[in-house]
Amino acid sequence: NLQIGIVGLPNVGKSTLFNAITKAGAEAANFPFCTIEPNVGVVEVPDHRIYDLAAMFKPKKTTPAFTRFVDIAGLVAGASKGEGLGNQFLSHIRETDAIAHVVRCFEDGNITHVEGSIDPVRDMDIINTELCLADLESVDKKKTKTAKLAQAGIKQAKADLPVLEKVYDALQNGTPARALTLSEDDLEVLKELNLITLKPVLYVLNMAEDDIADPLANKFVQAASAEAEKEGAKWVPISAEIEEEVSELDGEEAKAFLEDLGEEEPGLNRLIRTAYSMLGLINFFTVGPDECRSWTVRAGTKAPKAAGKIHSDIERGFIRAEIVSYDDLMACGSYNAVREKGLLRVEGKDYIIQDGDIAYFRFNV
Ligand code: GDP
Predict the structure, then answer these.
(1) Where is the TGS domain positioned along the sequence (predicted)?
(2) What is the CATH number of domain 2-46+65-116+200-279?
(3) Euclidean distance between CA atoms 32 and 51, whole angstroms
């Protein structure tokens, strides 16, 4: 499952958004997880296809894909100075696949801004600087160690050192690691550091309720989105307050409420979709009388590796995959009709799983 870390300055609307996520998630029927920590919220990935499949196969259990949001508190200007960012902070953020950076684009005299004024571009810069400094600390440690080993004549260390130096210099100038051109080998050197600034960032522009009909009419959204685009990052306008209100309503009520606002779906859905496309994620499905389930993989994943999501034994003993696309299945109306029409394909170990594939894996035990 996709994991997204929520960061941002205090009083920008992180908790409000996080509450909306937790409430929206609480409604989801069954989590395939055992424990959920207080700073983790889990919501379904919006995808009607899993429910269409469930309607066809009537399984005992339907399991959609989920996204985990981790609320990462504690970032303010200077957070990385002195004590450094807490270990807990770092361990939470390092586990995530992507960062949702919440930026305040609403004005409200009653809600103080830690920096004294509303200025989304400055805020983005403060947080990005802190994240660079957090990474700088980890790169520095490894660089020092590697330099010693290189001096002692260790070949691998000699090869690794320039990469660490390149990233170190960038971070010191406030350039996130993701902005550098790094080869597969470079990334391998950096892998164990789990750098925060290597993770893709999605800017969540939190604006006033009234602005949601036309986000770009808001000058703060204009400035923040332009800044995001400058670094090639995605951005999503939302109103955290609306999200919280929507999360308190049940399905039909929520729909009517959103319709009144001229919205088709909660902003949270848009956020998750954008994260999926940013990370190149797709969903495939497994179906049957026991369970219909959605699985998330990166686009370009081969069949055995996709099967490994379900169980490592299936990956190890992979023989072949029987595949039908969601569209073909829906057009045929049943699995049998798919077979009769010859639309059930037998694919080998080099087959690349496609979004919407319904897969049945044959494997040797
Ligand atoms: P955090 O410190 O980033 O977690 O911020 P919170 O979510 O606690 O929000 C700080 C305050 O701003 C709370 O009182 C929220 O109700 C309020 N707030 C959040 N989003 C909006 C918004 O879009 N408009 C207005 N006016 N207030 C908001």
Answers:
(1) 280-363
(2) 3.40.50.300
(3) 17
